[in-house]
TrEMBL record:
GO molecular function: metal ion binding; molybdopterin cofactor binding; oxidoreductase activity, acting on a sulfur group of donors, quinone or similar compound as acceptor
Residues in Oxidoreductase molybdopterin-binding domain copies: 113-269
Enzyme class: oxidoreductase
Family per record: Belongs to the MsrP family.
UniProt modification remark: Predicted to be exported by the Tat system. The position of the signal peptide cleavage has not been experimentally proven.
Native species: Aquariibacter lacus
Protein name, entry field: Protein-methionine-sulfoxide reductase catalytic subunit MsrP
Family annotation (Gene3D superfamilies): Oxidoreductase, molybdopterin-binding domain
Name of the encoding gene: msrP
Keywords: Metal-binding, Molybdenum, Oxidoreductase, Signal
Subunit and partners: Heterodimer of a catalytic subunit (MsrP) and a heme-binding subunit (MsrQ).
NCBIfam families named in the record: PRK05363.1
Amino acid sequence: MISSRERRLGLVHPQASDITPRAVFEQRRALMQRMAAGGAGAVLASWAARDARAQVAATVAPGQLPALKSVRSSLAGALASDTATPHKLVTTYNNYYEFGTEKADPARRAHTLKTEPWTVSIEGEVRKPMKLDLDALLKLAPMEERIYRMRCVEGWSMVIPWIGWSMADLIRKVEPTGNAKFVEFTTLADPAQMPGLRSRVLDWPYVEGLRLDEAMNPLTMMAFGLYGEVLPKQNGAPLRLVVPWKYGFKSGKSIVRIRFTEKQPATSWNVAAAREYGFYSNVNPKVDHPRWSQATERRIGDDGLLQRRRPTLMFNGYEAQVGQLYAGMDLAKFY
Ligand code: MTE
C-alpha cells in the first residue's frame, strides 16, 4: 500500500488505467469503429494498423522511432519529483557486462554489436512457436512511449522515456499452453562481437526470467527505442525487456530467445550469487542486499544537488499496478 509519507512527498504513481495512454486507446477505438462500419474482420484490422504504421515510418528520419506520445505528459505530471534523466547519461552510464564491467565500457565498445539481421525465437510451452525478424517485431503492436523509473540493484536510478509495446501483446500471439508458468529471456552471447564475454563474471549467455503473470502485466515492456530514437546498442539494441518494478538486471538486453517453461528458469545473477540476487528481485526498500542497504537510491544526474539520496519506493513506486501479483507472499523470503 502507498504510505502516507509517499503521499505527502507526492510520490504516488498513476493507476493502471493511466498506463494505456489516451491516444493509444482512442486510436484503437477509432480503428475498431471503422472496422465495425465496414464489416471488416480482425485480420483486416491488423493490416490496417500495419499500413498506418508503415505510413508513419515512411516519413521519419533514419535512426528515429515514431511512437504515440501521450504517456510522457501524464507520467511527468503525476510524479512531481521525477524528471527524465538526460539522454547523455542514459546512454553513457550503463551496465552491459558483455561489453565490460565499467559503466563507460558499453558506450565505448558496443559499436561492434551487429543488430541486423536479428531474429528472436519464441519457443517452449506455446501453441504457436515462431521465429520473428526485427521487422515483424517492430510491427507486432503499436509503439508507445512510456516514461519509467529504473532502479539498479546497485543503488542508483534513472527516469527513461522508452519506446516499445507491452510484452502481453507478444504473449497473446504465441498462445501459451496450460503448462506455461514462467518466461525465460536469453540474450545474445557472441564472442566475436562482445569483448566482455572473455571475463567469466557471469556464466554466459545472460539469462533472465519472469513468472508468466509478471510478464503479462501491462507495465512489462519490450523496448526498441528511447528518447524518440532507435535503441542505442549500449542500452540493449535491437530489443530489450523493461520491467520497471524490478531491479534493472531483470531487464535483459539484446534478446534472442524467449522460452515459456513450466519450471522456474535458472537466471544468470541468481546462479552467480543466489544470496544476493533472487529470482523475483522486486524493488523493495525493506529487503537489503547482503552488502548494502536498499532503503535509498542515488538518482543519476542529481549529483549537483548536494548528492542527496532519495527514498526507494516499494515496487519502485508501481505498487498500485503490481502489488496484487505478490499478495500473501513473504517478500523477504522470495527476494
Ligand atoms: N542485459 C545484459 N544482456 N547484460 C547485462 O550486463 N545488465 C542489467 C540489465 N540488462 C545487463 C543486462 C543491469 S544490472 C541493468 S541495471 C540494466 O540492464 C541497465 O540498463 P541500461 O544500461 O540501459 O540503463
